[in-house]
Amino acid sequence: MTREKMGNILVWILIIGFGVWGFPGIIDRFANGHINTSYGSYIPWGLWISAYIWLIGLSAGALMISVMTYVFNIKAVEKVGKMAFLVAIATLVGAMIAVGLDLGHPLRAFSLIFDPNLSSMMGWMAVLYTAYFITLCVELYFAIRKEQTVGLQQKNIKKILIVLGIWSIPLAFAFHGGVGGVFANVIAKPYWHGPMLPVVFLAGAFLSGGALFATVAYIWRPSQSKDEFLKMMIYLGKVTLALLIFDEILELSEVYVGTFYANQGEGHLWQQILFGQYWYVFWIVHLLIGVLVPLFLLTAKSKSPGAIALAGLLIAGSFLAVRLNIVIPGMLDPEIAGIAQAWVHSKLTFSYLPSIMEWQVLFFIVAVVMAVFMIGKKILPIYQTAGDES
Amino acid sequence: MCELYTYILKISLKGVAMSKEELSRVDENLTLETDESRRDFLDKFTKGVFGGLIVGGVVSALAPVQAKANKHGSNLNFSTPFKPFTLPPEHPGEDATLRMMRDLQRALKKPIEQRHWNMVIDLRKCVGCDACSVSCVAENKLPPGVVYRPVIQQEIGTYPNVGHVTLPRPCMQCDEPPCVPVCPAEATWKRPDGIVIVDYDQCIGCRYCLNACPYDARTFDFGLEYIDGTADAPKVFLGKEKAGKYETDPSYEYAKEWKRQDDASPIGNARKCHFCIPRIEKGMLPECVVTCIGRATYFGDGSDSESLVAELIALPNAFRLKEEVGTHPSVYYIK
Lengths: 390, 335
Ligand code: SF4
Ligand code: SF4
Hints:
By secondary structure, chain A is mostly helical. Chain A has one domain (3-379): Formate dehydrogenase/DMSO reductase fold. In chain A, 72% of the residues lie in helices and 0% in strands. The mean pLDDT of chain A is 92. By secondary structure, chain B is α+β, with helices and mostly antiparallel strands. Chain B has a single domain, classed as Alpha-Beta Plaits (2-Layer Sandwich). Helices cover 30% and strands 13% of the residues of chain B. Chain B is built from 10 helices and 10 strands. Chain B has helices spanning 2-14, 20-49, 54-62, 96-108, 131-140, 208-212, 240-243, 277-280, 287-291, 308-313; strands spanning 117-122, 151-158, 161-168, 188-190, 196-198, 219-220, 270-271, 297-301, 318-319, 331-334. In chain B, α1 (2-14) packs across α2 (20-49) and α2 (20-49) runs antiparallel to α3 (54-62). Chain B starts with a helix and ends with a strand. At the A-B interface, α5, α6 and α12 of A face α2, α3, β2, α6 and β6 of B. The structure holds iron/sulfur cluster (2 copies). The site of one iron/sulfur cluster has 15 residues of chain B, from α6.
């Protein structure tokens, strides 16, 4: 059985498994709204908002791969540009479902597309995501058309793709830096507030998206010679490694500033992240699975494509832990000491552990993301190259 | 030299034509404003770096937090024509409530934009009984998990030298409310009379404003009911559904009937204290003011120098919570 076939079977099993397990959560969300979630009014955002920034980051990262293909003309990834668009679209769809289900009145959100409040960073998000979605669809269309045309027509389409690719660079910076801004602009939350967060968001997005793409390209590689394939994987491995190192430098700086004078500023929040009840999210899920093991795999001498793909999968999957550690600690401090004891209710507390229903919904969303990718891959000619009629 | 510098700074900050009082206020706020402007700069810088988003910063800076003729067409900046009713003649030693009601009547005769509602809470008189919190729940038919005016109780000191502080916390109706510009749906804004309101019909329930409020003054309506999880024995007793009839009683916030059914607003919305708009528009004091057993909560038009609240705000021991965040609350405390 080829690697692609095995991948297909495995992913469809996961889609069905996640879908079946997650479906009751979706039913619960529609039947009971937000009642069975663990977030409340003092910790208003939880797993779904973290999943939204995780998925949208993956999308931005995948978009950057397509920019490498069509704008910078990097040979190693020239055959996977269309697949990068597909990954970006699938993860964007997942991110939008996650944020949509998090809203109290999701249907009203559609009006934001035409009539957003531009003094709100979240209002900007509605505009930017719409622009991003349209850009991705148009880019994918032209990327497919490019392979179906020849001569002058193909040249023109190439030019269009370059223009669209150049346009997607500031767009990606704006919409993902902007997501960082949604948090960074909240003066009431000192853990979030500051000019570095948008940069941290961008670095994380490019890392996690690039890493995910290394896995996708490994399983569903286009028809390439063995040599081409090896070159592509080594290139993706190098990019992922560079981004991982850069991201870790940023993180180290954050941890250093956050913990040096542990009893000042947000030091106590860092204490919670590192040594609190949920210490394993940082040390095991993020640092061990998401950083150290991939670092080992990516720096190994053998440069095996399988190891690079596995490193990518570990980084991309565990990045949800990074997102959770950004979103949740920011809300752990009461604005006024003693407020949780003033009016006691389970929705008025300062602790948060996602409920089963929240996890179910998340797994369902991941199943949808994978299904969109698999169906898109099946119905769109993303493997087709110029002159290839099949 | 230093004084001269401060004076020059004052003049350049506010212009030459400043009253003495204004100058002294600048004096107090000088450090604060420098701090704020630094934060402001960083804030704008972040926005600026990320491409076209600088436009957002500009829009945000220019957008008035005050009602923009409500583009959604709902009329929440209403001020219904007030029909004054007769109050007992003024007499020495009368209850403060009567004076505040007179103040209220006077204010309601003015156009809405000439009033500024303020609340003053005398912490020395608050006994921490929670009567205000509970009456607010009754008045606004608040479901479980939604609270507009919790009373925070804090013990200070180390045993045996301990003290007890109680601090009722309504919405501060900030003059610079951070909860307003963050709303992606323009579902929350400041009325001309100073009250920050939520348009339940527009709110998408994103809870961004909950995070933006530096006083934790907003809560989310999860659609919970008090009878959730209680025993049900319809044949033996009245039965859960009948006993819980009050759960679906409508509330009349913003002078509109809000029925709690089928996930309809205000379920799924951000909710907050609104100084009991429907009551004050009719000349009645907010529910928390009239139910306060210690007469610790005062309410009125701060822009009317004759009013009781204006007198109290001017006391040297009046202060506002978290002045340093630059929200300019309309709620004052006396210590
Ligand atoms: S206290 Fe909070 S909810 Fe009330 S106006 Fe100020 S920022 Fe908004
Ligand atoms: S919860 Fe409602 S009022 Fe608050 S920011 Fe979101 S849409 Fe606006």
